[in-house]
């Protein structure tokens, strides 16, 4: 699905940028959640409060993202059938005639 957003000439760059973005998001998320857990746990004196705060914030963000996607879907602004992938014609390649 995501590869449909780029052309064939930039596919490698797109995959690299996608990987870097995911790695940065994972690292920043892990560090910030750990800091929040430690700070809230130390301030409240109860370790469980730190975990509760982190998981509730994650649950809230998932609910907000899901609500946004549902609203966009209901308004008709998310139309996957309008996106034409540059890779869509690969099913017409005669794979038995390709010489390696």
Automatic annotation (TrEMBL):
The residue range of the signal peptide is: none
Q: Which keywords appear in this protein's UniProt record, sorted alphabetically?
A: Membrane, Transmembrane, Transmembrane helix
Query: InterPro entries under this entry?
Result: PucC, PucC-rel
Q: Name one GO cellular component term.
A: membrane
Q: Where in the cell is it found?
A: Membrane
Q: Does the keyword Ribonucleoprotein apply?
A: no
Segments spanning the bilayer are 49-74
Entry keyword Secreted: no
> How is this protein situated with respect to the membrane?
Multi-pass membrane protein
Q: Which PANTHER family match?
A: 44.5 KD BACTERIOCHLOROPHYLL SYNTHASE SUBUNIT (PTHR23538:SF1)
What name does the UniProt record give this protein?
A: MFS transporter
Q: Which organism is it from?
A: Chloroflexus aggregans
């Amino acid at each position: 699905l995501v590869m449909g957003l780029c052309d064939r000439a930039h596919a490698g760059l797109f995959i690299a940028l996608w990987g870097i973005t995911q790695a940065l998001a994972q690292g920043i998320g892990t560090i910030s959640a750990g800091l929040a857990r430690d700070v809230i746990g130390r301030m409240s004196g109860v370790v469980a409060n730190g975990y509760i705060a982190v998981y509730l914030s994650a649950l809230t963000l998932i609910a907000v993202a899901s609500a946004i996607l549902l609203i966009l879907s209901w308004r008709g602004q998310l139309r996957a059938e309008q996106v034409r992938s540059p890779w869509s014609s690969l099913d017409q390649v005669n794979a038995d005639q390709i010489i390696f």
